[in-house]
Write a structure and sequence with these properties.
The structure is a single chain. With 184 residues, this protein is mostly helical. Helix content is 64%, strand content 3%.
């Protein structure tokens, strides 16, 4: 703190320099000018409570925005709507999503793909091998490996649609399919 400068002077200088920017930032994030003003007042009070410590903050703007960000996160976290769940919910059996039962078609459809497609999908998608590692194992560049995996995924999607008669709803989600017996 500079000699002769009180905490109030230091705070007021910083506040007058950044108040407009903070107000605009809060209004944009909250979408409500009244809520933004409330948060701005809370922020000013927090800065004021710092007293002499506020004057030794290296970057007052950064400090103010960090405190504002944290306060906004707290406010949004508290504002989240919650729904009371019925007590007997645990006893109910949830309906299995259609897409979850589609996995019954997967082994057969995978077997119908080329060995290269099957290997790429099995390693990267089913076993979780990073595409960088897949590229290294196959002696490919990363873009070539990514293209190979994407093409294999496209062919898998086409084969699932054809073989299992997958139907999509208006939102592009699986709505129905015809299961096929597994290969024996």
């Amino acid at each position: 703190m500079a000699p002769g400068r009180g905490a109030a002077t230091c705070l007021l200088d910083a506040w007058s320099s950044h108040e407009g920017e903070l107000r605009g930032w809060l209004r944009h994030r909250l979408g409500n000018p009244v809520d933004a003003e409330d948060m701005l007042q809370d922020l000013f009070l927090k800065a004021m409570r710092q007293g002499e410590r506020f004057c030794v903050i290296g970057n007052a703007r950064a400090w103010l925005f960090e405190v504002a960000r944290n306060a906004l996160a707290d406010r949004l976290r508290l504002r989240r709507e919650t729904v009371e769940l019925p007590a007997d919910l645990a006893g109910e059996v949830a309906e299995v999503a259609v897409v979850d039962s589609l996995t019954a078609c997967l082994p057969r459809v995978l077997a119908e793909l080329s060995p290269a497609d099957r290997e790429a999908l099995t390693l990267c998608d089913l076993e979780g091998l990073p595409q960088e590692e897949y590229a290294r194992r196959k002696g490919l560049s990363l873009p070539a490996a990514k293209s190979r995996v994407q093409r294999a995924r496209k062919r898998l999607r086409e084969q699932l649609t054809l073989s299992c008669q997958v139907r999509l709803d208006a939102a592009g989600q699986v709505s129905d399919f015809v299961p096929r017996p597994p290969l024996t």
